[in-house]
Amino acid sequence: MEFRYLGNSGLKISEITYGNWLTHGSQVENDIAAKCVRAALDEGISTFDTADVYANTAAEQVLGDALRGERRESLEIFTKVYHPTGPKGHNDTGLSRKHIMESINGSLTRLGTDYVDLYQAHRYDFETPLEETMQAFADIVRQGKALYIGVSEWTAEQIRAGHSLATELGFLLISNQPQYSMLWRVIEPEVIPTSEELGLSQIVWSPVAQGVLTGKYKPGAEPPAGSRATDEKGGANMISRFMNDEVLSGVQKLQPIAAEVGLSMAQLAVAWVLQNKNVASALIGASRPEQVSENVQAAGVKLDDAILTKIDDALGGLAERDPRLTKSPETRLV
């Protein structure tokens, strides 16, 4: 495992971050989830990402239980706040001071830790003044409940405004957590240049495009039984944008490229996002321990310019690059 600095901070995180979005507390039994976390630790992963909304707080509890007994100082534990949790009442969502302060305490209890290394605004909140949100984050940092603050799926303009307030309030905004893959490149035109200027890194999710870049979905064929594309509760709606023959045919062209560099297609996809110097870490999830062991092989891989060009040629104009697709809900629905 290799490690990279997160933004312009002194915090190092593993190039591969283990995340438990669609698995822990919902799709995978707790004993299997614990084995996946153990596999991550055995492979040298030190960074773990979750959120209070995942399985309506259950994912944090599962992760906390799985990490219990590990040396806390050797781990980087990240979580997030914004989406509705608990009974999803009128104040159980968003980035108000009330919700943030209550949410950090709940997250720390479930995770079994006194602090998180990174606390992230899961989306931008149009209904709460940004000054209120950033003041709450500043207070959490001063209280020692979070060491650093990050955001997720914020636009370049929102990142710039948040960074300015964080600087005024005396704390560091060091990261953004966006979707990023060979097929979803909307952060490249605006978010990445702004982040490089201001000293933020990306912690990217879905580097294999919800499984599409593994090559398991074939053009003209039904999705494999039990796959994400068939699971209405596990991301079928999100993956649907890629489930057309044009995209799937393009993805199949990556197979010989992966073979040329001695990687599986999934490993190639994860390695590809890590070639971007502004990416500090790629988030992977798993429903089986062996998936962790496979994907972690992408750490430390260097793809030369010729291979990157072949990938671009294979996918042609199939990748989405419109920066307007980076957005948060205009209203907080509960």
Report what the structure shows.
By secondary structure, this protein is α/β, with parallel strands linked by helices. The protein has a single domain, classed as NADP-dependent oxidoreductase domain (TIM Barrel, Alpha-Beta Barrel), CATH 3.20.20. Helices cover 36% and strands 13% of the residues. The chain contains 12 helices and 10 strands. It has helices spanning 30-42, 58-67, 97-111, 130-142, 156-169, 191-198, 236-239, 245-252, 255-260, 265-274, 289-295, 305-315, and strands at 3-5, 12-14, 16-19, 47-49, 76-81, 116-121, 146-151, 173-176, 201-204, 279-284. The strands form 2 sheets. It has an 8-stranded parallel barrel, surrounded by 5 helices. A two-stranded antiparallel ribbon has the order 1-2. α1 (30-42) packs across α2, α2 (58-67) runs parallel beside α3 and α4 (130-142) packs across α5. It is globular, with a radius of gyration of 19 Å. The model has no long low-confidence stretch (mean pLDDT 91).
